[in-house]
Amino acid sequence: MKEPVYNAPVERIQSWLGDKVVVVWVPSGQKFPQFRNWQKISLELMQNPGYLRNLNDKGHNLAVLTGAPSGGVCSIDVDDDANAAVFLDLNPALRNTLRTRGARGCNFWLRMQGEFPPFAELKTRDGKHWGEWRADGHCTMIYGKHPSGVMYQAIQDFPAIEVPFSEITWPEDLVLPWMPSAEEESDPVDAELRKRFGEPVFFAKAHDGSLYVKGINQPYWAGLYSAENIALHEPNEGEFYRYSAETGLYTPESTDAIKQAISSRMLEMSRQDEVLQPLEFMRADSTLKAVTSQLRGIIEKRDAFANRQRIVHLANGVLKFDDKEIDLLSFSPSFYSRNRSPIPFDAKARCPRFLGELIEPAVHPEDVILLQKMAGQCLLGDNLTQRLLILDGEAERGKTQYVNALQGLVGMENVTQLRTAHLHERFELFRFLRRTLLVGVDVDADFLASKGAPVIKGLVGGDWFDAEQKGGTGSFQIQGRFNVMMVSNCRLKVRLQGDVGAWRRRLLIVRYEAPKPKKKIPNFGALLVREEGSGILNWALDGLQLLLDDIDKTGDIRTSTRQAGIVDSLLAESDSLRHFLRERVGGSPGSDLTSDEIVRAYANYCPEMGWEALTETVIARQLPSLMLELFRTTKAHDIQRDGRNRRGFRDVAFKEQEDTTNGA
């Protein structure tokens, strides 16, 4: 058969390797291209006539880009003829593929089917160089002059055969970089750590040439802790958290506990590996502190707990509320949960005593539903409604026992006391970290009238605050998504500061007005949780579904006209002096009223309205500003009564219906 005649070297290369091969020029006598970015030459350039003319210049060597650029054309470079013969015996199919050589050894050319590894040097187990697997990022000489002076030639002049990489048989004594080593197979975690962070220890040479352990590789030991524990570091809070598979929770882990865990692991490895024995004496606190510092960066997860899912974390699983369906799921670190109820879920459980003895006899039927919805929101741990709940009424009606039962349902570790008198102070908000429910029990009438009370609107309304730890190093932001409940035996007065609308949007009130139960049961709320915990849980979960339905349909919790009226009444009572002045006082040029006259008339007005009057101290503080605001009159000290100067206000008088009581 007559040998085909090729017009140019590129045409012959394409006859061997196909028309998708990418060829680059190399100076004669060289083994690699000498221009920059030669690895980025593409098949598109092979269509350029000028580029092809340059390739076909007889003064050039030519190389083929191996791997993906040439459509999967790869080569196996074997350094010497003896190894090539052994390799050919292992792979007889290669007798029918293109084989080229330079000065010694050879290259087997293949067109790969499917995936294949990148370029890799190939060595025997005793460290001798065997050859190379040439794929992505490399090239193989195929035409021209070898640096030794001989010409590259085809010793098997066949087109490259197409094979899957998996069908190539490699000599047993080769270390294959794409295959796991014996060490990696026996301990893949350790192998990955060494690959990522380096060896566990640093060695140095002694005077006699022997090696000794000089120090530890801090990132390796931090990485080992990370590999053996599901943990994270929240930089905003400056806290470590470790996940517990038993509870499904991320719980805070002190740096001292982490240092002890790392120390114990180092001691364990020192006793398992003779080479690492010196580790036992290298566990100084400064070293462990440095490892812990490395750990912060390795496991950092900022805002890990900020994006709350609609889940209720329970003692025996996680209930996920999704598209109005509830699924009981197993614990998972992906929930990023750090709060849970201690109550197990039991779909069949009921709570007849809780409803029949504590809830239904004590409040209006509409308020039973309201209490149920708010219990569900407290279980969720996220204040979706941006409301706070006030339970008020006479003592021993069940208010506190309901809150006690709810705290047991939510979990006491998720609850803390609300102290409005301290909310404006520097470190108070840090107490709320990791809590979901803030409770004020048996609070006084002025609980919402204290200086810090307006902060509550932000604590339930999604506002951001700077929380600072006493003795800590700086502050971090905390969002006000807390559930808030308070119990009082009297009607609370709110510090309005002219922001009535905002308080109206935030308040829910359940008024306990039923008769006192005939039999008092000590710690009744806690008793009910012990006896009917799973039933109360189901009641609250039903409330959560009702609440989510409200929000989906209206964007807020549904309340009745009666419930809204109770809130309006409380706000009016909190602003009772303003209401009195508007109702009973008017502008009257040339007239005047003493402060004492106003106070006495106000004291008579409040019982008519069913309100509790403000104290004289509060009246004295509010009256001057209200008189200026409503009547544009300032406080005078020379109002004449009985021939004496009195404190009061000019150009005002009681309205006609109050004239009969003027001066009484």
Features:
disordered C terminus, single chain, 4 domains, 664 residues, 8-stranded mixed sheet, alpha+beta, Rossmann fold, Prim-pol fold, 33% helix
Describe this protein's structure:
This protein is an alpha+beta fold and 664 residues long. It has four domains: 9-175, Prim-pol fold; 186-298, no CATH class; 352-570, P-loop containing nucleotide triphosphate hydrolases (Rossmann fold); 575-661, Orthogonal Bundle (Arc Repressor Mutant, subunit A). The protein has 18 helices and 29 strands. Strands 3, 4, 5, 6, 7, 9, 10 and 11 form an eight-stranded mixed β-sheet that branches. Strands 21-22-25-20-26 form a five-stranded parallel β-sheet. Helix 11 packs across helix 14. The radius of gyration is 41 Å and the shape is elongated. The N and C termini lie far apart (136 Å). 33% of the residues are buried. Residues 658-664 have low confidence and may be disordered.
Question: Based on the structure given, which CATH architecture of the largest domain is correct?
Answer: 3-Layer(aba) Sandwich
DSSP E strands, number: 29
Outline: elongated
User: Strand count, sense and closure of the main sheet?
Assistant: 8 strands, mixed
Mean pLDDT: 91
User: According to CATH, what is the class of the largest domain?
Assistant: Alpha Beta
Whole-number radius of gyration?
A: 41 Å
Query: What gap, in angstroms, lies between the N and C termini?
Result: 136 Å
- Number of helical regions: 18
**CATH fold category name of the largest domain:** Rossmann fold
Helix/strand-derived category reads alpha+beta
Give the count of structural domains.
4
Low-confidence stretches: 658-664
